[in-house]
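Q: what does this look like with adenosine-5'-triphosphate bound?
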Amino acid sequence: MTRAISLHQVSKSYTRGVRVVERLSLDIRPGEFLVLLGPSGCGKSTVLRMIAGLESATEGEVRLDGEDAGDLPPSERDMAMVFQNFALYPSMTGRDNIGFPLRIETPGEDPRPRVDATARMLGIEDLLDRFPHQLSGGERQRVAMGRAIARHPSAFLMDEPLSNLDAKLRNHLRAEIASLTRELGVTTVYVTHDQAEALSLGDRVAVLRGGVLQQVGTPRTVYALPANVFVAAFIGTPRINLLRGLVRAPLDGAMSISLGKQYLPLREPWSVDQRLLRVQQGREVIVGLRSEAVRLAKPSEARPGEVAISGLVEHVEFQGHEVLVHFNTGSRPAVVPDLEAPRPVRPVRRRRREGSLLDRLRDRRAGLRAGPVVDLDDPADAGAGRDGEMPPEGRLPGDLVVRTTPDFDLRHGMQVPLLVDLAHLFVFDQHGERICPAPARLPDLDE
Ligand SMILES: Nc1ncnc2c1ncn2[C@@H]1O[C@H](COP(=O)(O)OP(=O)(O)OP(=O)(O)O)[C@@H](O)[C@H]1O
């Protein structure tokens, strides 16, 4: 049997007055795979522990199949937990580790048939007689999974079960967990701070920040229609470009978003979303552009809905199948607090120290600034949409990261024409809430 798990206005304080989870409401359907995603310390594990009954809610209700579970001890919740550190008993073999909870739950019964069936399912029959210290990390986690599965629980609660494993194994086990839980059809709540893991595993993803639910939706929804700038920045690699902008919508009808030295003209016919932006006239906004919203091409190649800007190549990240190009477009990046690893911003140079390697590299870069223009550039067209020249040295570099194919031979200091697809433009207000596409469109994407 699998079960519905509901959190109704749940808050948790460990110390009086400090809520680490704040009025969280969430309905997890029977058989659903829900991922709790958020940066370290945002309260994910606390939520999981409240569902397990290891912590009690300070306010609100945790309901199992519609019934308040506040007084139900963990042992009566029929849930299995899998932790990051595997938590195997070191003095027991794999077989005994898997069979242990069965012996506790049904003392008179021989656990072997269920242990064997579970081991077959996970392909770990040959590991059953080994002790944990004789197993690799991935093998230990498989045994830990086996221990959870063998009980036939009504829900799995997994707390970063893969984060102690190397990347390759993590991907492999991720696929295994996805197919196992689907096959078993058991409600699963999975905690992670890894957005790629969340997107690839979850039927839905609930994004938490500082104990507050930001958005819950399918992976497609949270990626394509993030409710706010935090979700937009937390989900997706490379991280979405967030630039500080100003909406200009004078009475003569032309509308644009100024990005410092350049601007994005919004030409008629406007979409409904763009029309709604008019009310932001004169206001500062945050413009979000995922790397796929911008391509390297001349203004003359613009398709309908694309507008031209240009960028100075600051850094090229070769990734094999693709290349990430960091451009300086003369705009100011918007900073989102609470993200785990903000994109590093190089400090503004104030004083030059004589003779260092860094200085020589900087000199070279300064020389390149006036340097070559890429072949694909058409000097006559490249200025379209620009307010003026590129900024002088000292501005924060690398405000726009664009994904492209390795075919372009791009080097530091090149000035490159870019096309921005306005259909992929996000605009957030000063509080970080999404205003374009309009929030009203949120529910109808694929839910
Ligand atoms: N037993 C406790 N007593 C006091 N504070 C606690 C306790 N457990 C957790 N906290 C605090 O509650 C907040 C949320 O912790 P929690 O472990 O739920 O976060 P998390 O999102 O799971 O983080 P991580 O990804 O780092 O595990 C943190 O600030 C943490 O320090």
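The first strand starts at residue 5 and ends at 15. The first helix runs from residue 44 to 52.
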